[in-house]
Design a protein that fits this description.
alpha+beta, 10-stranded mixed sheet, 5-stranded mixed sheet, 10 helices, elongated
Length: 371
């Protein structure tokens, strides 16, 4: 069984191994044991409500219960930019015109911006190579939307994800080489690592505050602005299917796009419903009539309503009846629910999606907090 639960300290080694395999460019999860441990402890303080709600970091583990091992992670940053300034570039247009000369020039520009301050961010999605495919990446990502729906008071009405931008296998970013390197005198990997480690003051101290005129940049740099890394393209498609759209902001290091959505418009939130738990013995599935939006043969996500011990797993859609959901005893124990409890469920995959082809290569959703 695959189960979503809060990340624990004993997940550290598995998390470190996944961070190592992710390569360069995943800012929120650098392969640094001390930093990862601090993140896990911050997350535990968040779930145990030992820190202010706006300072919360929610990290969820995907556990393979047979292996008793964490095989994936995803997260939510309750608010960005409150303790440290959060930077993006906003794509804009500067117009210069002269009626006398008959000249009207529109120049695309980048403006340094803090517009995402006080907004919730989904981040830190990473899945072990051994567990890619079969909807596991979808479960790991979409479980966060169920948590957002349950506990909206802890988050902003709008959420965003900063996508990993274009860089090569050696960690070289065309945008950084053309722009950031001229002001920071360091390579992309070093700057991105410093940001991930929380050393962000250098951005404010060294980044130019004036607009950047894109025609002054080389073609290679301009061509990657607003584009995602090849490994991140499936994750972007998944977020777009959830209702996320490009908001005109890009990452200041590699130009990766920022996508956003209002919580109430997110597909998983809109299509989620409540059911009352019924416990059944054995492995036979329920045979009662189902709602039309839960076709037979597909999987649905089921979550409990616990803040501290949030749990999500998947069950066959034909376990779902009109007002109830029929769970086996092992599944109920894993979700920490009993007969009569109310759970929330949502379809795992988009209607009409071929389950054998859906987003096999999901790796990163968010690459910054840069927490």
């Amino acid at each position: 069984m695959l189960l979503i639960r809060p990340l624990q300290e004993n997940d550290l080694e598995a998390l470190y191994a996944m961070a190592q395999s992710a390569g360069k460019g995943l800012t929120t999860l650098p392969a640094d044991r001390d930093l990862l441990l601090r993140k896990i402890r911050h997350a535990r303080d968040t779930f145990d409500q030992r820190c202010a709600p706006e300072a919360g970091l929610y990290l969820f583990a995907l556990e393979d219960t047979e292996l008793e091992q964490c095989v994936g992670i995803s997260g939510i940053q309750a608010r960005v930019g409150l303790d440290e300034v959060f930077y993006n570039y906003r794509l804009s247009v500067t117009v210069n015109a002269s009626r006398e000369l008959g000249v009207h020039v529109r120049t695309p520009t980048l403006h340094l911006s803090n517009d995402m301050t006080d907004t919730s961010e989904i981040c830190s999605l990473l899945l072990s190579d051994s567990h890619r495919g079969g909807g596991n990446g979808l479960l790991l990502s979409r479980c966060r939307f169920m948590f957002l729906d349950h506990f909206r008071k802890h988050f902003s009405e709008k959420v965003f994800a900063e996508m990993r931008g274009v860089s090569d296998k050696d960690g070289r970013s065309p945008l950084w080489d053309a722009l950031g390197r001229r002001f920071f005198d360091m390579d992309f990997t070093q700057a991105d690592t410093l940001s991930g480690l929380g050393n962000k003051s250098f951005i404010a101290e060294l980044m130019p505050k004036f607009p950047i005129y894109l025609p002054m940049l080389p073609d290679e740099a301009r061509s990657v602005i607003g584009r995602v890394h090849d490994n991140t393209a499936p994750a972007l498609k998944m977020l777009q299917a959830e209702g996320f759209n490009f908001n005109g902001m890009v990452d200041i290091f590699d130009g990766g796009p920022v996508v956003e959505a209002f919580v109430h418009n997110i597909r998983t939130v809109r299509e989620s419903t409540d059911r009352i738990v019924m416990i059944r013995s054995g492995k036979s599935r329920a045979t009662a009539a189902q709602p039309a939006d839960l076709p037979r043969g597909e999987e649905v996500m089921v979550c409990n309503g616990s803040f501290r011990n949030f749990r999500v797993t998947t069950v066959p859609a034909d376990c779902v009846n009109i007002d109830t959901i029929s769970l086996t005893e092992p599944v109920a124990r894993a979700l920490e629910v009993e007969a009569g409890d109310r759970v929330r469920l949502a379809p795992l995959k988009d209607a009409g999606t071929n389950p054998n082809k859906h987003h096999r290569d999901i790796n990163h959703v968010g690459r910054s907090s840069k927490a």
